[in-house]
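Appendix B, record 7
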Amino acid sequence: MRKIVRRHLGKVVAGAGIAVAGTALMVAVTLPGSAGADETGGTGNSGTSGSASGSAGTGGGGGQSGQQAAVPPGVVEQVPAEGAKGKGRDPLTDGEMARVEHLALSRQQLGSGEDVTGQPGPQRISVDLAEPEAAEADDPNAPRRADVSYYDYKNDTLVTRTVNLDTGKVERTGTQHGVQPPPGRAETTEAARLLIADPLGAGLRADYKDATGKELTSPDQLLVSSMVYRATPGAQPAVLDACGDHRCVRLFPKVKNGPWIDSRSLIIDLSARKVAKLG
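Structure tokens (predicted):
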């Protein structure tokens, strides 16, 4: 049996469960198993065939009563075309999402903020259908609103704007510091890019090459999930003490069609664009 190689990063994880140990708390994280084409169930089909065969054998000439009824072919219904605007509590349509993103930020905000890569404009985190106002809870014709959340890396601020989709106006704006929603896909990708390029990513690169025989140069070569990391005062390297005010993440990389790679000890500070290792 091939031994798992331990390097600076840790080990290649082939199991489905990983316990994520935080500095001052334990967070249980279950990593999904690798889906395979062989995961099909034949038991149900064979059982049905056996039952039908037994019925036919005991039928004794009863015409159609001794025959197995034909099973009609399955029909896959087409997904209905999505309209430009939803109704009531329907999920936001693609058209509504595109429109609300355009309405949520003014030209000035687009130029003054900064995204996860350092480019102008805050980083979009999420777009969700907003809850109706209290007075509109039972009104079937209540206006549809959307909450759009952005993270401004220029000043580590979470900005949430509520847009009325009927009028096109921004009705509310909320600004919060130290609030860290789950990372978006762009943030996870950028964190992986920083880790791959950093000297502390040597173990990740070595484990990837050991698993695939190829060099790891891009996040596109991995399947990566992530979670926010918050600092506990005095319990980690000083370089990570700002995590919580800064946007910091921990990555769970997986080789495509291969094993998980353990990078639990490495934290990426997206605000400072630095990688640090937990003790």
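Remarks on this record: The first strand starts at residue 12 and ends at 13. The chain has five helices and twelve strands.
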